[in-house]
Amino acid sequence: MLIEHKNGVLLKRNERLGERDWRIDPCYKVIFSPLGKGKYQTPIGDISIPKDSFMVFNPNDSHKQLQATKEKFLIELNTDTIEECQYGIGQDTDIEFARFSYKHPRITQWTTFVRDYIDEANDEKEIKYFLDHSIPQLALLLVKYGNGSHIDEFPSLKSEENLQRVIDALRESYTFDWTLDEMASVYGLNKYQFAHQFKRTTGMAPYSWLQTYRLLRSQTDLMVTTKPVLEIALRHGFHSVSSYNALFRKVYHKTPTMFRRQHKSMK
After folding, report:
1. Residue ranges of the alpha helices (H) in the chain?
2. Quick check: 149 and 93 in contact, CB under 8 A?
3. Which pLDDT score, from 0 to 100, does residue 267 have?
4. How far is the C-alpha of 80 from the C-alpha of 37, rounded, in Å?
């Protein structure tokens, strides 16, 4: 099913799920993995999208589908749709979404509702009318809960009490050199059970979550100060500027210096 609507395109299908060609699209592309793992190739490495997770490609990002399990489901959003949403809620920060997969219950709920509705809809006209009203909701959810240059915190995520205690501890002491055993001790389970529960809830491994959180917290320093990149990296918990640069290239496909030049005047 390929449906064009006034805000972009919806694609949902259960066939032809093998390897596709490289693409560069002039829109935001939101890719979901509702039934199993998805995998995409980018110029600097592959990105896996676990079940119930999603990720966003920015306009003109080069990418290639490698795998989709049982179903391919994506939404292409015109840049105007995101900009209008930002304007509507009084946000004027330039958005560049981070290129990694993650989960958020609000977006999972939206995805489930939309998939179920279009499966039951009678015709394309009905689906288009439905999308005209529901796609702007997705844009708002992405602006509010999507990770990227417009935030310096992971969006709020309600979880069971023990895991929330770990997340709160990591947020409060994110520059601390946490080990998996120490995280698991806060949770109250062995490290293997803890790591499984953490990833099942957030879509990310604990250490990957922590490193990415450190990066998000560092963005404001890049955009509003003239501090050297090395000082910013060490201040936010990275052991070296090389590890900071490597993660930045993975998440944004550019160095911290390039990110600073692009977004400094936008914050």
Report:
1. 79-88, 105-120, 124-145, 161-172, 180-187, 191-202, 206-224, 229-235, 241-252, 256-263
2. yes
3. 47
4. 30
Residue of 31, 141, 9 whose CA lies nearest to 82: 141
Full strand arrangement of the beta sheet holding 8-13: 2-5, 8-13, 72-77, 28-33, 53-57
In the predicted model, what is the mean pLDDT of the chain? 90
User: Which DSSP category does 97 fall into?
Assistant: B
Please give the pLDDT value at position 155: 80
Which residue, chain included where needed, has tokens 């959810």? 141
User: Which pTM was predicted?
Assistant: 0.88
Token pair, residue 66, equals: 């490698």
19: number of CA atoms within 13 Å, CB side?
Answer: 2
85-128 per-position pLDDT tens digit: 988 888 877 899 999 999 898 999 999 999 999 988 878 888 88
- Interatomic CA distance for residues 169 and 56, integer angstroms: 28
pLDDT digit string (tens) for 169-210? 999 999 999 999 999 999 888 999 999 999 988 889 999 999
Tokens of 11: 């694609």
3-state secondary structure of 169: helix
Q: What is the mean pLDDT of residues 129-138?
A: 90
Hey, what's the torsion of the CAs at 267, 220, 250, 92, to 10 degrees? -20
